[in-house]
Amino acid sequence: VPLEAEMLQPFPMEQFFSASAAEYQLPMLGEVPPGEPPDPKKCSPREYLEFYIFPVLLPGLAELLHEAEKEKCFEGKRTKFIPSDFLTEWLYNNNPTRKDESFTELFSIPFVKDWLKDHPRPPIPLSLLLSEEEASILIQSFWRGYRVRCDSEIQELRKWQKKLREERHITEVVKKFWTKQEAK
């Protein structure tokens, strides 16, 4: 049988999942399926997922979706919300072995600190940090400044200042001043 013919056949998902997606309910944090937990080193991958991974990961993903909705991630193309950061912080703070410990911010988590030492992040663009109101104020102030600088009286004043700086050699005077200050 040619490889292409095999790849185009429908994939029998029933053999991998005992319950349909509609029947499967998200477990609560720490809730494991009924029965005795299997030995993590000897159980099947499915049992390992159902007993050890899903009871912690699925509630974290549900919280991630709630937080993404709060941050309005589904309304625009770009956002400052970083889902992997949220999930890392959530999983770390909801780890059953850390029950009695206080909340730890993402950048205070030891392995995150170590990772960021070797792999620093680029800064988040200002466009993602500003609210729409702050951005509009900033844009309006730049526009007003531009319009003022276009005024003929202001242009005349700027030309006069430039000529004065050149005649009096202001740049040299400032350099001399700072060399004297540094020598002290």
Protein model, in words:
It is a single chain. The chain has 8 helices and no strands. By secondary structure, the protein is an all-alpha fold. The protein has helices spanning 3-7, 45-70, 83-93, 110-118, 126-129, 132-150, 152-167, 170-183. It is 57% helix and 0% strand. InterPro entries: IQ_motif_EF-hand-BS, IQCK. Pfam families: IQ. This is IQCK protein.
- Which radius of gyration do the C-alpha atoms yield? 30 Å
Number of domains: 2
Q: Provide the helix percentage.
A: 55-70%
Largest sheet: none
Low-confidence sequence ranges? none
The number of helical segments is 8
Task: Sketch the topology as an H/E string, one letter per element.
Answer: HHHHHHHH
Number of strands: 0
* Proportion in β-strands: under 5%
Question: How is this fold's topology laid out?
Answer:
Blueprint: H1 3-7, H2 45-70, H3 83-93, H4 110-118, H5 126-129, H6 132-150, H7 152-167, H8 170-183
Helix pairs in contact: 2-3
Primary descriptors:
184 residues, mainly alpha
